[in-house]
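Q: Hi! First time doing this. I have a protein sequence and I read that you can turn it into a structure. Is that right? Here it is:
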Amino acid sequence: MKTQIEQNGIVTLTQEVTARLSGSELWNDDLRPTTLTEHSWKGLNFATLWIGMCLCIPAYTMASGMISLGMNWWQAILTIFLGNAIVLVPILLNSHAGTKFGIPYPVFARLWFGAKGAHIPALARAIVAAGWFGINTWIGTGAIDTLLTASFPIWGNFSGHTAIVFAFFWALNVGVAYKGPEAIRILGLIAAPVVGISSIILFVWAYTHSGGLGPILSTPSKFKTTAEFLKVFFPALTGVIAFWATLALNIPDFCRYAKNQKSQMIAQSFSLPLTMSIFSFIGIAVTSATVVVFGQAIWDPVQLLAKFPPFVIFLGTIVIVISSLTINVGANIVAPARAIENLYPKRITFGIGALITGVFAILMQPWYIMSNFGNYIFGWLGTYGALLGPIDGIAIADYWLVRRKQMSLKELYEPNGRYNYTTGFNKHGVYALLIGVAIPLLGVFIPGLHFLWDNAWTIGLFAAIVAYTYLMKDDKSVLSQGEYEKITIMEAPPHLTNTTKQADIELVR
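A: Yes, that's right. Below is the predicted 3D structure, encoded as structure tokens:
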């Protein structure tokens, strides 16, 4: 029986199957596959999404930590570019699955962990994202509070002023996320040009007021040998990779709306590594200029803005709010909201998931976490990189090496489908995850193998790929040769295409 239609590389369910699955406990309007008409995001939407997320305070200051460790400016930028180019690979590989089958991350995880087991990678990603949501909300709060105090000194004397700003900014983040992916798409279209133009203006100011690019760009590297450099380079590279390792997992949440594979791949390939590298360079150049203009290196853009006239501070506050909001909603709310929704699809909506994420982020007390910023962030990046690397590896191995981009879409939503395995858990996925985490962990306890932990994300990813591919050899959940063609209508004829579009309309209604 034909259950799905593949048209121009996009797979959708037939009208009959859609109607039958709508009552499944694994189905709701947010987790269902996107319809053909919902594949509407063009390359511009993905470019603005990434540009909006990359133009943030953590990205601006990323190179500062590397320079403080002894790198010169071009070594820091090269490390940032390489890290983003590396993490781009799993992003694009997982994007393909989201685009082709129109499924969000928690449903994609059912493929390799089972209907119940999917909660393991989904909640692992959710906890990390909720933590970052709280951290970024606190960073944004500090920025807004500082700029308000600089503009209106009386604000700093007001009791509880920081708590008020935090509550406002938290509500703004959750409110935008509550509206769903379409609101995020619109936010990206607004944020990218606003923050991008503001960054260029800041760079021009720095160049003209310092009479050049300042002393930091002329400071040599502190490393005397290649071995000394590599000792810092690899942990720093892992940190850069871990910065977007979270999005490498749940990128299907966005790519499920892509118009086609080509547009999302080209847009993401250029926008992520280039934006991160250029914005980090602007951060270095502007900070270098502050040494000349103010007599000290000011890495924090908030502290820098506080030195300008009130009107500039006001405009800067708006830009920072937009920037913080874009990365927080796009990178840190969608994944946990989907994971929470997947726990009980018939009762929990995406909006409710976003609200729960917001509450959980408060319970994690980001103000306490940020009180020891340096140690926590480096530990945070390394630890969750070691956890998410193996999950990335399992996702890639399952879709590309085990199933070779073929699956029965309807069975992802059937409680007794092939992807439910025998108990709701795919034990091979669990074993591969344990192996992928254990191997880098050896570097923590065995001094001679510390390089394993320094490169935890990469080592864990490849270890999980090898383990999962081997364990899933001849697994019964894999479609047999020719089975995909038996259940799929390839390149639907015009009259069937019209029927499908009508079904899309009815479903959206």
